[in-house]
């Protein structure tokens, strides 16, 4: 397993710009053979726009089942988990409507 620590980028994940930057850093790890642990320990805030840009936009590159198989989450607060789940659901609905 490879651990990807979001805390190295700060304690607040709030902008699309930061989300895109982190997704670019995260993306190569998802091409490897090891499962990637998305570690949100110490993160106080995850906005819906950040969650969409960083996590949910990965669905544009791989199916949800593949993303689930390649990743696991740790260190989520109830609010950060809700932001990520909401972004994933919205992006998945958008993808399904466009196909």
Order of strands across the main sheet: 1-3-5
Beta-strand residue fraction:
15-25%
Radius of gyration: 13 Å
The overall pLDDT average reads: 96
Number of helices: 4
Terminal-residue CA separation: 33 Å
- What ranges have pLDDT less than 50 throughout 5 or more consecutive residues? none
Alpha-beta content class: alpha/beta
The level of helicity is: 40-55%
User: What would you call the shape?
Assistant: globular
Number of domains: 1
Detailed description of the structure:
It contains four helices and five strands; from the N terminus they run E-E-H-E-E-H-H-E-H. Helices cover 49% and strands 16% of the residues. The protein has helices at residues 16-30, 48-54, 64-70, 78-97; strands at 2-5, 12-13, 36-39, 45-46, 71-74. The chain starts with a strand and ends with a helix. The chain has one domain. With 99 residues, the protein is of the alpha/beta class. A three-stranded parallel β-sheet has the order 1-3-5. Helix 1 packs parallel to helix 2 and helix 2 (48-54) packs across helix 4 (78-97).
